[in-house]
Specification:
The protein has 325 residues and is of the alpha/beta class. It has nine helices and 16 strands. A hairpin with a 2-residue loop joins strand 6 and strand 7. Bound molecules: zinc ion.
């Protein structure tokens, strides 16, 4: 007897609820593998009340995670996307979460009867609770932090816990990214200032998490310095920085890292305001063939045969290409 038949016989109320849920969320056929499809890199700022242009409420962040999960998205780290490393079940899609500006609602400790706990309403608390309820969804995100900003934006706004927070993030598989020292608009400054902003941010993080390299830079306000190279790599007073990717503040879904269209120095993101997120969820519902869908095997790259010409050179990666019809 199928589960749904049993439910109908034994628990009509549950069955009705399930039917209503199905009406709201039409059953989805599993996506065919397409590792040339696009990937959403979502961009959050404050997690706080009330909902606003630069703030998502805790309840809405939870709801975002649920909407992503039920549509077959799974969290992956940005660094894994850059490395072309996808360990996801077949037919699921990667999605990347990024949090800019290290405001308190992203990561807050609260004192509970003398014990320090992660606030269940901050982004880290919400992500971890969601992963406990839905382990298949995964738990990771990249935090673009500001080590030299004025409070409350300096490393999440609790000076006594700065080091503990960064170390916790790294120990749990979250990523830390460069967002300059204090949110400098890099288009406005000469080379020496640009490089200092990037190297000093790297130095600050390494003081708190020895050896940690910031692999990606989210450009404040999406502004590029006059020379691209200044943002990619350099060295100031013996401290070097090297970014494998530069992130913009808008631009839509990102090309697959296996696509010729993928430019790690111009990675677009999707800002999470309700209208934008709803647009992109609907976009991929209506165009499932444009969405990155995993083949379930990290060692292979499965692509539609008709899109063969879009595949970029994957030299040195030891990945096997599978073409499907
Ligand atoms: Zn910012």
């Amino acid at each position: 007897m199928s589960r749904s038949t049993a439910a109908r016989l034994i628990r009509p109320a549950v069955c009705l609820a399930a039917a209503l849920a199905l009406l709201q969320t039409p059953a989805r056929a599993q996506l065919s593998a397409n590792e040339l499809g696009k990937i959403m890199i979502l961009e959050y700022h404050q997690i706080a009340e009330p909902e606003a242009r630069w703030a998502r409420t805790p309840a809405n962040l939870r709801r975002d995670l649920e909407r992503l999960r039920e549509r077959g998205y799974r969290l992956v780290g940005l660094n894994d996307v850059l490395d072309g490393r996808f360990s996801l079940p077949a037919g699921t899609s990667p999605v990347v979460l990024t949090f800019d500006d290290s405001s308190p609602g992203q990561f807050r400790y609260v004192d509970k009867n003398g014990r320090l706990e992660i606030d269940p309403d901050c982004a880290v608390g919400i992500l971890e609770a969601f992963a406990r309820a839905h382990p298949e969804f995964g738990v990771t995100a990249t935090f673009y932090v500001l080590p030299g900003a004025a409070q409350p934006h300096r490393l999440f706004g609790q000076p006594e816990h700065e080091g503990r927070k960064l170390q916790y993030l790294v120990s749990r598989g979250f990523e830390i990214g460069n967002h300059t020292l204090w949110h400098a608009n890099l288009s406005k400054y000469p080379e020496a200032v640009v490089r200092k902003q990037l190297a000093h941010a790297q130095q600050w993080i390494q003081r708190l998490v020895p050896g940690y390299r910031l692999r990606t830079l989210a450009l404040p306000m999406g502004a590029y310095p006059k020379e691209l190279e200044w943002a990619i790599r350099g060295s100031v007073d013996g401290v070097s920085y090297h970014h494998d990717a530069l992130l913009q503040v808008a631009g839509g879904a990102a090309p697959s890292p296996f696509s010729r269209r993928f430019d790690p120095y111009r990675l677009p993101r999707i800002q999470v305001v309700e209208s934008e997120l709803a647009y992109w969820l609907r976009y991929f519902e209506q165009r499932p063939e444009e969405r990155f869908a995993s083949d379930g095997d990290p060692a292979t790259v499965t692509i539609p045969r008709a899109r063969r010409a879009e595949l970029r050179e994957l030299g040195g990666r030891n990945l096997r290409i599978i073409q499907r019809d």
